[in-house]
Amino acid sequence: MAKKTRKQGGTPATVALTAAGTAYTVHAYDHDPAAASYGGEAAEALGVSPERVFKTLVAEVDGELTVAVVPVAGQLDLKALATAVGGKRAVMADPAAAERTTGYVRGGISPLGQRKRLRTVLDDSATGHPTICVSAGRRGLEVELAPDDLAELTGAVLARIGRG
Predict the structure, then answer these.
(1) pLDDT tens digits, residue range 100-145?
(2) Which residues pair with residue 61 across a beta bridge?
(3) Strand, coil or helix: what is 8?
């Protein structure tokens, strides 16, 4: 992977990666507004296994917004997410609250470069791949990077939070 430099039109996620000196690759594709699954669409458009493309979900754990990064091939286990951060109960966050807090729109929420840095949990299956893809901060744009780099930059806890 070549290190990218900031170009006009970069997203907060790519700006954060560049500022950190992290190696990454940007992958763009034409987003179809009718797509049933943003993550599934990304995997198919990029020709990448759905196990290597991760979706960024925002949940509330005991009232605190928390980011969960899980493979698009599965689902988020809310109970496992709560346990991973020492909480008791997790529910999906209100989409408007997730957008307002992260600064991104649904389907384009990145775990990187968020307006307010939220605690983050990365599914531990990520470590089984040399690189994974996550949203680069807008629909139709993914960033590929090493899972260890993602965990370091977000301060993520690694835990089994995906299922399926």
Answers:
(1) 999 999 989 999 999 999 999 999 999 999 999 999 999 999 999 9
(2) 64, 90
(3) coil
